[in-house]
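Long-time lurker. I teach an intro course on protein structure, and each term I like to show students one example going from raw sequence to a predicted 3D structure in token notation. This year I'd like something fresh instead of my usual example. Would anyone be willing to generate the tokens for the chain below so I can use it in lecture? Attribution to the forum is fine with me.
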Amino acid sequence: MVCLLSTVHSLGMIVVVNVQLCHTGLTILNGSKMTESILYSRTGHVGRLVLNNPERHNSLGQEQLEGIQARLAEVSEDEQVRVLIITGAGEKTFCAGASLQELSAGQMSGDCFQVTTGQLAELAIPTICALNGNVFGGGVELALCCDFRIGIEGSRMRVPAAAIGLCYPLSGIRRFVECLGVNLAKRILVASEEFDAEAMLDIGFLDHLVLPGQLEETTNDLAQHIAGLAPLAVRSMKTILQQAGAGAIDSAQAQALSQLCLDSEDLQEGFSAQREKRRPLFKGV
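-- Reply from a regular --
Happy to contribute to a lecture. Here you go:
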């Protein structure tokens, strides 16, 4: 059987994307591992996670979150994956958050949310969130866990925790403050303010805003560009930047990462490519 949760329309806390595979009933389609609600595939150095439950606004339940953790662990161990794209199916909603049905019934663990979002945010490789529509609740934090966010014109964003009487989890509040600042976090969480696409771009939630028909091309272009960069340098700088954002840089680790890049074959390849006026072929060593 396939692990699958058909949840009600949701707005919950924190949501993350990845593939949930359990027991039997798994099918393979065009190289993708597939269940009815979550898809994962890899093409070259680019991994792709798709929330595939548009009828439920791509909401997620407890079992999906547990599957996400397993799949993110697999991605982190796959040295061939240099960048991960996260997106949703359909044209209306990227992710509506966690299932309100499971939340209200006490069937969803807040710890599971925190572990999952933390795991996504701490992924060593760069992550790109392609928001194919509106984003609500925990879907907003899911996007913030990614390094880059691309949205489409006509979309909206809102976290309705205060509107339903929910205090957002501490780790999530901290993430909003670290990524957007305390004043914007208050507008999003305390005031439960709704933002349109242009406002999302203005406040820095989105890095790029495109027409719906341009989302896939723009996302793939960015992913391919990043995948062609030196993996050691990319991962090292992401680690240091995340520590800087959290206000606690590990100087010894930063120095070790810098030295690792200085001693790498990739650096020599980069120098050679510059001299020979060709594209470098980095190996991540």
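Some talking points for your students: The longest strand covers residues 38-43. The chain has a mean pLDDT of 86.
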